[in-house]
Amino acid sequence: MGNKRERRRFNKEFKKEVARLVTEGRRKVSEVGRDLDIHPNVIHRWKREYLEDIEDAFPGKGHMRPEEEEMRKLKKILADVTEERDIVKKALAIFSKHPR
């Protein structure tokens, strides 16, 4: 079988520091990639994500940015309220029928 590398994981602080290095122009992406043995495409992606939202970049697996979390909560509330409304409509239809 081939010499397959195990996937490495990098924490938020490490990614931010690498992105900061190449963003502030102190080091070239190719240089940093060679020194850290990280493919330049990965560093470019980290840089892009870092520049999109410096404060909340790299939220981590299972975590969302604050605005995404708020949107998720609002969608859940809307779904609950819509379901409650539909139940009330059905109940109103059932109870509004007059027996003959």
Query: Number of helical runs?
Result: 4
Q: What would you report as the Rg, rounded to the nearest angstrom?
A: 25 Å
What's the total count of β strands? 0
String of helices and strands: HHHH
Whole-number tally of structural domains: 2
What form results from the Cα inertia axes?
A: elongated
Low-confidence stretches: none
**Percentage of β-strand residues:** under 5%
Relative helix content? 55-70%
Our measurement of the CA-to-CA distance between the termini, rounded to an integer number of angstroms, reads 80 Å
What is the mean predicted local confidence, pLDDT?
A: 84
Describe the sheet with the most strands.
none
Structural class: mainly alpha
Write the SSE topology:
Blueprint (H helix, E strand, L loop, with lengths): L11 H12 L5 H8 L3 H13 L13 H30 L5
In short:
The protein has 100 residues and is mostly helical.
Describe the protein in words.
This protein has two domains: 52 residues; 37 residues. 63% of the residues lie in helices and 0% in strands. It is built from four helices and no strands. 6% of the residues are buried.
Entry keywords:
single chain; 100 residues; mainly alpha; 4 helices; elongated
